[in-house]
Design a protein that fits this description.
Blueprint: E1 2-8, E2 16-18, E3 23-27, H1 34-46, H2 52-60, E4 75-86, E5 89-101, E6 113-124, E7 127-135, E8 140-143, H3 145-149, E9 156-159, H4 178-188, E10 191-193, H5 197-200, H6 219-229, H7 231-241, E11 250-257, E12 260-266, E13 272-274, H8 280-300, E14 307-311, H9 319-327, E15 337-341, H10 345-348, E16 358-362, E17 369-371, H11 375-381, H12 387-392
Parallel strand pairs: 3-15, 3-16, 10-14, 14-15
Antiparallel strand pairs: 1-2, 1-4, 4-5, 5-6, 6-7, 7-8, 8-9, 11-12, 12-13, 16-17
Helix pairs in contact: 1-2, 6-7, 7-8
Length: 397
Amino acid sequence: MLKRFRVSNFKNHLNTEFRPAGVNLLIGPNNAGKTNLCLAMRFLGLTSTRPLEIALVEAVGETWNIVNAYVSDKTIEMEAECSLPHQGEQLLFSYDLQIAVQPGGPQIARQPFKVVKETLTLQGGGFDGIPLLVNDGEKAKLLNEEHWVRKEQNPYIEAPVPTGATLLCVLYDLPTYQRANLFKRYLQSWAYFDFNPKSLGSSIVKREQYGLLHDGTNFGRALFILHNMNPSLERSIIKVIRDLEPKLEHIIYISPDPEHIYFYIEDQERKRFSAEIISDGTFRFMAMTFVIFSTASAVEDGLTPPLVMIEEPENGLYVGHLKPLVERIDRSGQAGQFIFTTHSPYFIDLFDDNPEGLHLLKPGKPSCSLKKPDPETIRNLLEKMPLGELHFREMLG
């Protein structure tokens, strides 16, 4: 579970610290930094498996205009603290990453990136603030965890310094680095979604990607895999979606070739309807239901609770349908942490009884600001009006 995330010099964020609860809501006016905070977290997650440039392109869409335009420093800083279960214990990991943005080459839209500092430390389980990996851009070392447990001398192993990537990215999945890899897999689980109905309804299959992509691409493939691997979970998801799409009794799949999967909905009379009849809002609701149910199921199967970010879930939807869906999420974060962004006062109202998860962002120059309103103050204000109205009247701070 993520305890703290700090980012500095990433777009309009300078020294922003985010302390999430189990279920979180980012609110604020346009250009306040809500999406940029999510993109910074998405980028950090992607660096665990991809070179820096590829991670940036996938997270942001470009490698230009990444650092804050109002400061001369070209170093991006990110920190993450999280608590993860391991062999019956809770281990506290602290990860510090600093990336230098190098001057651009012949292609002005491209800038090389270099790690100048990378440290992963562990607290707990006999590792009291011990660095598991250290990378200063010139030298790197890894802790042989088995040697450390056996209290052998010289437990560190010198490692080659990766070019344009983090040391965590190239870490081998070996028993000697099992705790470092636990943290790596946790970063890999960070998922960001900004669903596009056209992508959700597309038949195109991205075979190199197992799950659902951030815009909704591969939705048909993800449903098809669920149909074959966990039909009981598929039935649970269909039951919830049926509130919006009463014709839905079954989902039928047709794959004429490895590059395409078409899905149809079938009613109780076995009449079939193509995905073309599904409204944009229903598509987004289907995707969110899939993500929320699949996340809880994965945790029940013993996987580490992931971190899931969803942009503006209310788009195209009657918020009344979202209320029971959001209420299904375990607020403790033990079944996965969730972060939502929104501009809808009606979706904000869903957090009336969860003010601990509210985070307010405000635009500013050179940096936006992030504030976590006092929950008790909010509860007192809620006696006068709902949360969405308090936000509209700028009474949250």
